[in-house]
Amino acid sequence: EENGFILIKNLVSEEDINRFRSEFERICRQEEKCPGMVVMRDVTIAKSEFIPNEKAVSKVQDFQENPALFRYCALPQILKYVECFTGPNIMAMHTMLINKPPDAGKKTSRHPVHQDLHYFPFRPADRIVCAWTAMEKINRQNGCLVVLPGTHTGTLHEHDYPEWEGGVNKMYYGVRDYDPQHPRVHLEMEKGDTVFFHPLLIHGSGMNKTQGFRKAISCHYASAECYYIDVKGTTQENAEKEVLEIAARKYSLDDISLKDAFAFRGRLVQGERISL
C-alpha cells in the first residue's frame, strides 16, 4: 500500500526455474511452437544474422498455451500472494519470459520507465498485480528492475517511445512526464526471489553491462471481476493502435480491439471466470 511493490525472497524453487529455463531453450531452438506465443528479438539483434538459440531471443510473450511455462502462473505460493490483491477469482492476463541480452553498446537493452496499466484495457487498477521472478541473480550490472516507490498512488501518465539514438524495442513505451528526481530503488534479487507490484507503479530496468543474459519470468494477474474499458480517445490509444497493427500482420485480422486481444489470451488460474 505504501510503496506499490513487495519483494518476497526465495519464493520459486530452483527445480521449477530450471524447468522454465529448459523450456525457454527449446523455444529458442524452435523445437517448441504454440499458438499465440510471440518470440521477440532485441532491436540490435534483429538486424543481425538470425541464429536459433537463446542469443537471438530477448523475450517470449503470451505463453499461455505452453503448459511447461504456464505452470509458473498457477504456482500455489504465487497465487497465495496474488489473491491478496485480486480476490479468489484470478485470471492470468499477460505472460512473459524476459531474456535481457548483453547490451551491444547502443543501450537498447534498457527498458524505459513506464506503467504497465498503459497496456491494459481493464480496471480497476487496484485489482491487477504483476508477479516477476528472477531466474538467476539479478543486480545493477545485468539490468535489474528499478522502481519509483509510491508512484502507484498517482494517475496513468501519457506514454510514448523515448527518443534513444540506438533505437528502441517495439512496445517499449516510456512515461512522458514524471519527476526524474523521485527516489529510485534498484531491486537486486537472487534466483527464485519474486516481486509483486501495482500496475501504476513507475518502473523500468537498466542496461545489461555483462556478457550473460538476464532472465526473469512474469505474469500479470487480474481479478476475474474486473471490467473492460474502451481506450479510444485516451492516452492508451497508441498501444491499441500498435496491437491492431500486429494482429493485422500476424493473423490477418483488421477488426480487433485491445479488449479482444486480452479476452482471447486471458486464462483462468483460480476460481471462476466472471467478466474478463
UniProtKB/TrEMBL annotation:
Its cofactor is ATP; Fe cation; L-ascorbate. Pathway: Lipid metabolism; fatty acid metabolism. Its EC number is 1.14.11.18. Belongs to the PhyH family. One of its GO terms (biological process) is fatty acid alpha-oxidation. It catalyses: decanoyl-CoA + 2-oxoglutarate + O2 = 2-hydroxydecanoyl-CoA + succinate + CO2; 3-methyldodecanoyl-CoA + 2-oxoglutarate + O2 = 2-hydroxy-3-methyldodecanoyl-CoA + succinate + CO2; hexanoyl-CoA + 2-oxoglutarate + O2 = 2-hydroxyhexanoyl-CoA + succinate + CO2; tetradecanoyl-CoA + 2-oxoglutarate + O2 = 2-hydroxytetradecanoyl-CoA + succinate + CO2. This is Phytanoyl-CoA dioxygenase, peroxisomal. GO terms for molecular function: L-ascorbic acid binding; metal ion binding; phytanoyl-CoA dioxygenase activity. The keyword Iron applies. The lineage of its organism: Eukaryota, Metazoa, Chordata, Craniata, Vertebrata. Pfam families: PhyH (PF05721). One of its GO terms (cellular component) is peroxisome. The keyword Glycoprotein does not apply. It comes from Mastacembelus armatus. Keywords: Dioxygenase, Iron, Metal-binding, Oxidoreductase, Vitamin C. It comes from the Eukaryota.
